[in-house]
Amino acid sequence: MRIIVTGGSGKLGAVVVESLRAADHTVVVFDKAARRGEGVPVDLTDAGEVLDAVAGVEDLHEGVDAIVHLAAIPAPGIRPDVATFENNVLGTHHVFQAARRAGVRRIVTASSETLLGLPMTVPPEYFPVDEEVTLPNSTYSMGKLLEEQMALTFCRWDPALSITAMRFSNVMVEEDYAGFEAWQDDPAVRRWNAWGYIDARDAADAIRLALEVRGPGFERYIIANADTVMRTPSAELAAAEFPGVPFRRPVEGTGTLLSIDKARRELGWSPSRSWRDAQG
Ligand SMILES: NC(=O)c1ccc[n+]([C@@H]2O[C@H](COP(=O)([O-])OP(=O)(O)OC[C@H]3O[C@@H](n4cnc5c(N)ncnc54)[C@H](O)[C@@H]3O)[C@@H](O)[C@H]2O)c1
Hints:
InterPro entries: Epimerase_deHydtase (IPR001509), Lipid_A_modif_metabolic_enz (IPR050177), NAD(P)-bd_dom_sf (IPR036291). Residues 3-182 form the NAD-dependent epimerase/dehydratase domain. It comes from Amnibacterium kyonggiense. This is UDP-glucose 4-epimerase. The protein is of the alpha/beta class. The protein has a single domain (2-275), classed as NAD(P)-binding Rossmann-like Domain (Rossmann fold). 32% of the residues lie in helices and 13% in strands. The chain has helices at residues 11-22, 47-55, 81-102, 139-157, 200-213, 234-241, 261-267, and strands at residues 2-6, 26-30, 66-69, 106-110, 162-168, 171-172, 198-199, 217-223. The strands form two sheets. Strands 2-1-3-4-5-8 form a six-stranded parallel sheet, with helices on both faces. It has a two-stranded parallel sheet with strand order 6-7. Helix 1 (11-22) links the parallel strand 1 and strand 2. Helix 1 (11-22) crosses helix 5 (200-213). The radius of gyration is 19 Å and the shape is globular. The model has no long low-confidence stretch (mean pLDDT 97). The structure holds nicotinamide-adenine-dinucleotide. Nicotinamide-adenine-dinucleotide (NAD) is lined by residues 7, 9-13, 31-33, 42-45, 70-74, 87, 91, 110, 112-113, 168, 170-171.
């Protein structure tokens, strides 16, 4: 496939671009931070630029089969809330609208685990937390919800359109794993997302599978690694930090408390990395 990756210069994007190229897809990066030769420095909040660049860019592409939309301010608290809202929600709208006008019918878009009620100040109703939970607690997260809602609407307007929203857990690259040791003595430090994480390479695998296997329509998936960031068993962590929260099914050992059952079942995805493998 010929694929545009927005945010391809970012933390997750760089790994996704490498992974898609390794699978023989042709990738064009759109990122306002892209350096010459690395991609096109498109500002996604500029509707005209996005529409034109999705339709074609001289010497680079004359149309694509799919878009992986990762560009965003990636968390609350990085920029003023209104800047995060404007950048992320407007940019996502313009990407979806440009795809619609240019006839691109396959999109994978970055949503966020924040929609699962993070920072979990109010305990979740049950474990493992799944896609039925949609509880934004920040402007960033509300923006991601509006983006999922836009995706649903664009798919309703065009029954041939496929949009997959990935509710990524906290994205990690290999260099981050050395820092995990510091969390082991205090479960409270990573309580805010129920000790989840996603290795960028496993996230890239999920994106590639969604591009390859999903049919038309909208779906959302939690994408997290199969284990937590902790050595303490998950049931013990939950009992200490979220007493009384029931389990809908048992979670063995250090298994994730963020349900990835839907992604396993429907995408055939299975995360294969763990921070534990990087420990010396
Ligand atoms: N990092 C995480 O833990 C995490 C967790 C869940 C979801 N996500 C989502 O995953 C995606 C990727 O996150 P990341 O960690 O790689 O972020 P990042 O900040 O490393 O990369 C984002 C990239 O998007 C580009 N960008 C931002 N606004 C743009 C605009 N208006 N026009 C063009 N380019 C723009 C930036 O230049 C940057 O290169 C984001 O959508 C983020 O919300 C991230």
